[in-house]
Amino acid sequence: MSEETTKCLQTTKDGMSAVLNFFDKELQKIRAGKASPQMLEGLKVDYYGNPTPVEQVGNISTPDARQIVIQPWERNMLPVIEKAILAANLGFTPQNNGEFIRIVVPTPTEERRKELVKKAKQETEQAKVSIRNLRRTANETGKKLKDSGTPEDEVKKLETDIQKATDEFIGKIDKMLEAKEKEVMTI
What we know:
- This protein has two domains: about 5-30 and about 110-185, Ribosome-recycling factor (Topoisomerase I, Chain A, domain 4), CATH 1.10.132; about 35-105, Gyrase A, domain 2 (2-Layer Sandwich), CATH 3.30.1360.
- Helices cover about 60% and strands about 15% of the residues.
- The chain has four helices and six strands.
- It has helices at about 5-30, 80-90, 110-145, 150-185, and strands spanning about 45, 50-55, 60, 65-70, 95, 100-105.
- The protein has a four-stranded antiparallel β-sheet, with helices on one face.
- Helix 1 runs parallel beside helix 4.
């Protein structure tokens, strides 16, 4: 394989790995009844007029599988964090005791678990579309290389390798969905 086709294949695989990593992070945000600090990822609080991620204004921990505890660096941030959690509509109510905020994560109902699986499947479909878009872009690059003088058999091998990478990454996405579905539906 020439340098251009190798670079095209490597760029495509790197892009697919990035999609897989993003998909993994999105799946982690879908809570399965177990408390985790990732549940609050993306939550912004008003820190002296600036929207700031909650993890930058306090320590977030999970003392057990059903609780999240947020201990802010500054005590006057307690009501601000509490307000942000309520406004984000995450499905749980924060309890402010003057020292820290405790969030008790409720066990999801059967209906809620089905909604979570549905959301996971939507994320899966988006990830697969991104993988397929990368495949299409790489195949277009292969056609351009062919037009610029790269041998046809080398371009065919590139397309075959791109398809193998696509199948491999879509398989990984399906396995991740299967594991998440099992995790969510297990009581």
